[in-house]
Amino acid sequence: MDTFDGVVEFVAVAECQGFSAAAKQLGCSTSHVSRQVARLEERLGSALLARTTRLVSLTQAGAVYYQRCKELVVGLQQANEQLSLQQYELSGTLRVSCAGLFAEQYVAPALMNFALQHPDLKIDIDFNSRMANFVEDGIDFAIRYGRLEDSGLVARKLAGRQMMAVASTEYLDQFGRPIHPQDLKSHSCIVANNENWIFDIEGTEESIRVNGRWRSNNAHTVVNACEKGLGIAYMPKSSFNRSIESQLLEPVLEPFWGRGASSWIVYQNRRFLPIRARMAIDYLMDHFSSWQE
């Protein structure tokens, strides 16, 4: 059975493209990973990895061996996890990176309910708009909004986000109500992430460049500025739910609202996710499966 020693470590190095990153994923020392892989190569009589000072890459033999081994490792991990689920409650700390009002108002409460179901589980949520370094920051998964760059990470769509344009009654009484998106060029607009607002005009997405006196990348601040009468705001509908219900804001340009972007769950390769992260992700996907903006 010692033939299998080092296989898990080798697959981790191949996935993470480095010994240190693999060690963090596996929760062991870098020297242990290096030693296990070296012993595996010695037993096989073949170099699996090409090492330089900055880069670790697969050799031709290593690439072939990796393709054979990766599914074996996944199957073993899933079997171990299934057995663990039958015997133990979730424990440890689930670390989540979030950003935006949607995460504050909807994702965080959902994770609170998840925590209530697992009394031994700790949850650490970091609200930060920067993209998480999953290895260095110890993040299990992140909640992000908008179009995602191709980063090699896994991204699962959590919810579609319908857009809404709003303004305060005081602002509309003073400056008039826009009838068409082109009218926004003569209005003060509150800019959140960018000044190019996408509207659905006769079935075609069109970009309208806006400007105004207030700009902020914080959704709470945008909503508050809009309530104060500083201009027209355009964000996902759920951002304004409380303000609309309280009649502090009212919708404008409704026939032209765009579909908006989506909110995503983002994480590293699924095979290295701990059970608590997998179950939390599945819980959120199920919770938001029928969610309407």
TrEMBL record:
It comes from the Bacteria. The keyword Transcription regulation applies. Keywords: DNA-binding, Transcription, Transcription regulation. The keyword Transcription regulation applies. Coiled coil: none annotated. Residues 10-59 form the HTH lysR-type domain. InterPro entries: LysR-type_TF_proteobact-type (IPR058163), LysR_HTH_N (IPR000847), LysR_subst-bd (IPR005119), WH-like_DNA-bd_sf (IPR036388), WH_DNA-bd_sf (IPR036390). Pfam families: HTH_1 (PF00126), LysR_substrate (PF03466). Belongs to the LysR transcriptional regulatory family. This is LysR family transcriptional regulator. It comes from Microbulbifer variabilis.
